[in-house]
UniProtKB/TrEMBL annotation:
PROSITE patterns: PROKAR_LIPOPROTEIN. This is Lipopolysaccharide-assembly. It comes from Elizabethkingia argenteiflava. Keywords: Membrane, Transmembrane, Transmembrane helix. InterPro entries: LPS_assembly_LptE. The chain crosses the membrane at residues 9-29. Pfam families: LptE (PF04390). It comes from the Bacteria.
Amino acid sequence: MSFKNSYKILYFGGLMLLSQLFISCYSFTGSSLKPDVKTLSIKTFPNNAPYNNPNLSQQFTVDLQNRFLQRTNLKGTTQTPDILIEGEISDYQISPTTISSPTMSNQTGNILQAAENKLTITVKVHYENAKYPQEGFDRTYSDEAVFKNDLTIQQIETSQVKIATDRIINRIFNDIVANW
């Protein structure tokens, strides 16, 4: 066997070994959770905002639970969990963002109307990791959805709330699981 052939075998063998090493270190779920972290408990996030959307607490909690249970190998538990996530919805408000040109009204003169409104949702999160306590945190997450003023309150609460809460849940998930 020639020196060139031996070199090629060593080179490709080394590449294969190195690639196996990298693959074993990376989880294709995108999770950087340690293998000994196996259980999760997400408590109900009560809606303590001044304006209370009656479905928000339950929907947010279920969506957060689903995100973790579907995208990680964690199992839900009510016993002593490795990971505990709890918190509250602390703010939920709709406010105007863009004012349209005044319109004339027979009784009041010029009236300013909101052309666009903004829904803002704020959630406080407490995260504990029983196996790695240094990873725990308390953080506040806030997001918004801007929409035209022609939506009804029911349309806002089905479409715009979903947009804002999905973004918040994504950031919570990334902060806990992906360590981003």
